[in-house]
């Protein structure tokens, strides 16, 4: 199974709705892929940035599934978890690469996981 994570690192954020749902989905995907490398960990920060179910003040599991169905979600290599709802839902707020002293730039056309990917994992 995928690792357990703490939603309150690096600071307090009530994002259990995102962590719990994505943990279940990450585990299902890992099982379906027979633990193939690299492990896929979906980005809870994108859900927070884009209102995909809630904010750091709480949220709704159903909103995560709606977001996955309508938009898809990148893995965490696109958007590290910052435990804040201060980031906008812009292309950079979904997938970016950052370098010290150079700022951040968006990644065009990141790989997005959708609810269909999980339907396969759940039925496989």
UniProtKB/TrEMBL annotation:
Residues 3-93 form the Peptidase C1A papain C-terminal domain. InterPro entries: Papain-like_cys_pep_sf, Peptidase_C1A, Peptidase_C1A_C. GO terms for biological process: proteolysis. One of its GO terms (molecular function) is cysteine-type peptidase activity. Pfam families: Peptidase_C1. Belongs to the peptidase C1 family. This is Peptidase C1A papain C-terminal domain-containing protein. It comes from Haptolina brevifila.
């Amino acid at each position: 199974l995928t690792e357990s994570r703490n939603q309150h690192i690096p600071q307090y954020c009530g994002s259990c709705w995102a962590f719990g749902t994505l943990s279940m989905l990450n585990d299902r995907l890992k099982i379906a892929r027979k633990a193939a490398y690299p492990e896929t960990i979906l980005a809870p920060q994108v859900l927070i940035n884009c209102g995909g179910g809630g904010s750091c003040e709480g949220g709704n599991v159903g909103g995560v599934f709606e977001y996955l169905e309508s938009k898809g979600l990148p893995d965490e290599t696109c958007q590290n978890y910052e435990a804040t709802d201060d980031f906008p839902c812009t292309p950079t707020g979904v997938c970016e690469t950052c370098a010290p002293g150079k700022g951040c730039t968006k990644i065009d056309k990141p790989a997005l996981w959708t609810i269909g990917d999980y339907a396969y994992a759940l039925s496989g």
